[in-house]
Amino acid sequence: MAQIRIQNVRKEFGAFTAVRSSTFTIEDGEFFMLLGPSGCGKTTTLRMMAGLELPTSGEIFIDGEEVGMKPASQRDIAFVFQMFALYPHMNVRKNISYPLVSQGMKREAVSARVADVARILRIEHLLDKPVGGLSGGDRQRVALGRAIVRRPKAFFMDEPLGALDAEFREHMAEELRALHDRMGATTVYVTHDQLEAMQMGDKIVVMNHGVVEQFGKPQQIYDWPATKFVAQFIGSPSMNFLDFEGMIGIGGDSVELGGVKVHVPAAREGRAGRLTLGVRPEHVAFRDDAPYRGRVSAVEYLGTTQIVTLSTEHGDVKARISSGQAVREEELVGLDFDARTLSLFDAESGKVLISEGNEGVLAHG
Ligand SMILES: Nc1ncnc2c1ncn2[C@@H]1O[C@H](COP(=O)(O)OP(=O)(O)OP(=O)(O)O)[C@@H](O)[C@H]1O
Ligand SMILES: [Mg+2]
């Protein structure tokens, strides 16, 4: 069990900065996601926590102890890589026992631990089988077994399901989460898949270009994105962005969009200039008398809902509405935005200006 704290951690590779001043805390027992697009610095961040890479500056604490100078082998962390390498000439039991045997643990203690792990992973029936003939999922379970048998303080996983097909991936994701819930060990999990992060994580750090954009619970990040980047990275279809020239004062709760007054949650910061109104597709409703108008340009049927694309004065807007609602292409409709759910950003910096739900949210400065 471990709490892991990252403070102003920075990593440079020569002239290139891979991670810029990251700060966040992973609480004991959390299933914690490092989320972001390719190249944003997720693996580098994880490797620094594990002790496989030295930070250029900043501090890393495990259970309050600064571990900067501690090598990986002394951090008591199990790293689960994407490529689950097993020893092909050994059976399942030997593969799982190996880390303990090589530590010199006594035979009976090893047997007891392996039995325990096999029970947790539900692979008791496989213990005496050679790993060569196992299915992909069973191999993955054996590899996990080898990681958990040491009872490390924390598990680090770098896109562990990346190589799997969609269906199996979903199944293993559920299994990993259930395993975590049974064991309660701190788990740090790297992914570029926003759905995986939302489904599995207790908390998420969203990174972009080496910067921590936001840190919080999945729903907090979805409902109150701290930056435009987070808003468009999480959710599908993405949040709609309506760019306009306007102003809002501190505590103000409306903006003027193309001559139409739109209510928004109270602003934490005032701004005049280029603003961006952020509207999730599911928060756009059609109302005949709504003054903000859009013309239907495309309709995509998705079963229970449909995605309707509308062209407006401020660009395309996607609405997710019930499939039962009749919509015709080229039709002109009034658009009603659910005021409590809107985001408002400074268009230049991309930072959110409204405060609701954003207390404690780390918007990078
Ligand atoms: N040893 C290194 N030397 C030089 N540059 C590196 C090194 N390791 C990583 N980088 C660069 O740092 C940036 C961040 O890399 P990192 O592997 O942490 O990204 P990532 O978020 O894990 O991406 P991916 O989703 O593709 O795995 C990338 O631009 C990468 O090219
Ligand atoms: Mg990576």
TrEMBL record:
Recorded superkingdom: Bacteria
UniProt subcellular location: Cell inner membrane
One MF term in the entry's GO annotations: ATP binding
SMART domains assigned: AAA (SM00382)
Keyword Ribosomal protein listed: no
Domain named ABC transporter: residues: 4-234
Bilayer topology annotation: Peripheral membrane protein
Keyword Cell inner membrane: no
Gene Ontology CC, one term: ATP-binding cassette (ABC) transporter complex, substrate-binding subunit-containing
Name of the protein this chain belongs to: Multiple sugar transport system ATP-binding protein
Source organism: Shinella fusca
